[in-house]
């Protein structure tokens, strides 16, 4: 199988490369953003027509936390719409029979039932702080479903929960909550500061999936002869942001005080995926949060020392 991984230099794409590299019968097709701009429709179409991969995983996306999504909604909507449309349409034009599109748990309504089942999609308003990103991901999911229904191609989607792991973005304003906390606590520990300020009240609950578990789930889904149009990928457990903050502080070794800035937004009150459909098919996450945090902090230190940290 000739497999094109779109976005292979990102956190998810790199995990997919680790998962598939060396696997018998798989040849990886990779292009950096400099080599192929996925927002350029013509460039994507020409590339896919020339290379003719057997399968495509669309892991490329413009991603960020609450601050980034709220500050740059136009870029988050346009870039992610363009990536999804160009890759899916280009794949169909090139005769690619199988595409796995990666979405996000933020596609579900702000007040969705918890845990969130796949069929609660489009049953209520989205969380305003990441609405632009969510709309783009919903459009990609629906486009994959439309190509499958109309043309009989095996285009399907996976909706991962909050991800973390090697290669994450540690920018203090534009990253997600877990990597931002790792960097905050590490820098506070290194500088000998007595306190760290955390956003919000700490009450929202979040589910976290190690990116290597997601890559394994993708490999599992690509082997299914008739996968669902879209399926949740998570761990089935969640923690409060306050609990997460305490876990990260302990992992990093920060012993100071945490001050909560309640003037900052909390975001969605709870986001826990219903993963029963994927569990019933035979897949389950293997890396628990405590172990995953230890692994992630270890790679954070390695990336920091090597100058490769995304910050």
Description:
There is one protein chain. 42% of the residues lie in helices and 16% in strands. The chain is of the alpha/beta class. It has one domain: NAD(P)-binding Rossmann-like Domain (Rossmann fold, 3-Layer(aba) Sandwich), CATH 3.40.50.720. Helix 1 (11-20) crosses helix 7. The protein is globular, with a radius of gyration of 19 Å. It starts with a strand and ends in a 5-residue tail after the last helix. The mean pLDDT is 95.
Task: Compose a concise summary of this entry.
By secondary structure, the chain is α/β, with parallel strands linked by helices.
How is this fold's topology laid out?
Layout: E1 2-6, H1 11-20, E2 27-29, H2 41-51, E3 55-58, H3 66-71, H4 73-93, E4 98-102, H5 131-151, E5 154-160, E6 162-164, H6 177-191, E7 195-199, E8 205-206, E9 208-210, H7 211-222, E10 230-233, E11 239-240, H8 241-252, E12 257-261, E13 270-271, H9 276-281, H10 289-306
Parallel strand pairs: 1-2, 1-3, 3-4, 4-5, 5-10, 6-9, 7-12, 8-13
Antiparallel strand pairs: 8-11
